[in-house]
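User: quick one
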Amino acid sequence: MAEVKNDLSYTADHEWAQTGDDGVVTVGITDFAQAQLGDVVMVELPEVGDTVDKGDAFGTVESPKSVSDLYAPFSGEIVAINERLEDEPELVNASPYGDGWIVKLKVTGDAEGLLDADAYRAHLEAEDH
Amino acid sequence: MSELARTALYDAHVALKARLVPFAGFEMPIQYDGIVAEHTRVREAVGLFDVSHMGEVRLRGKDALAAANRFATNDLNRIANGRAQYTAMCAPDGTIVDDMIVYRLADDDVLICVNASNRHTDVAHMREHLRGDVELTDESDSWSQIAVQGPHATELLDRVIGKTSKLRPFRIRERTFAGTSVLFATTGYTGERGGEIYAPNSVAMALWDALMTQGADLGVGPVGLGARDTLRLEMAYALYGNDIDRTTTPLEAGLEWVVRLDDGDFVGRDALVAQAAKGVSRKLVGLELTERGIPRPGYPIAHAGAVVGSVTSGTKSPTTGRAIALGYVPVALSDTGTELTIDCRGRTKSARVVKLPFLSRD
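Assistant: Done. Structure below.
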């Protein structure tokens, strides 16, 4: 079973978000998403300073056979990218909630509307059936 | 949706926790342990592929060779019995109906391995153009097929079906497994040593198990359709539906080496003679990105800002890490070294035309 962490928020597109004390949100893809994708061989990252609107595709995660868009969970400014992913995209598979984080976002708009862990688990079960 | 077929090895895939996907009407394993690991297994050790979905068409009779030559662009008279030949099969307009391996078993017995997704189209096309004393049978449902590919493949095959290591590429021989006659061919779709075993469904599972068990010390493991695709693309082997189809001709696709315009008539010959005389306007070339990105089928290829073609296959080569693609470009832009760009989902990436195959094997 895919791991779902209790202390994170989730999108229906299988991304997770964690709001830090400074209001900066760290974004990555879920364990379920990385397992579905298979081997991540490239992550296309935005640049620090880019601004994104909620729902915008801000990057891609690619396996040998497929490419998936990353969608901004909130509107905001990209304040950090995980540069390790340029050379080690496999971190997304190995540690989706840890070293495989993708971007940090300084939220400028509404930071609501994500799923909590239980709602995301229910979403996974619904997708499974 | 119609019911998906299962190969005789379905239970093995389930036991190996394969991810199964619908492919050409079959429920097929796309991956087991991950595409990169499976790809590496074939390049460095030995991998097993269930390719039982492939179609097998048999031609039997006095005119079997002549019949095959009528729809094949290549010429079966150029090889001896016991040998295999790669060929295209064209429509009268010269576009490709399918590509296939033709096995010349005897003067009156030809086995043809066709793409699973084209099986019914192919059989209909062959029947339409069948002439002489020959009987065509679609044997696809009777055969299982296991590809054994990799540097340790011959050693594994020696153990399981007897001496194969002396056999040069593109040969086919009868072998015995578990008291049952099977056909072993030194063909494949990866660029590695080894071959493909055509076995009756009744022994397929025992054969798979024997290959897995007796190859344990050689690093054997299963390989799904995902890695099959990355392996073939590194070798620039065309994939029907991606790189070749009913809109492309063998002369455009770099398959002129399997088109014998001087060796008698075949379906599509007139169109290909005309195209050869006029010269093709576009060619399938190999491309490599010179910056980060991964080209994918359908991405536009541009030159000086103008779209000149599109990618037909692309991936990040698991062996070299390079971003590789096949695509059609105008002949004037097809020379090795030509600088082009590929539009990767709105981002323009620099690319250049490179020699094929992407991976050179000895």
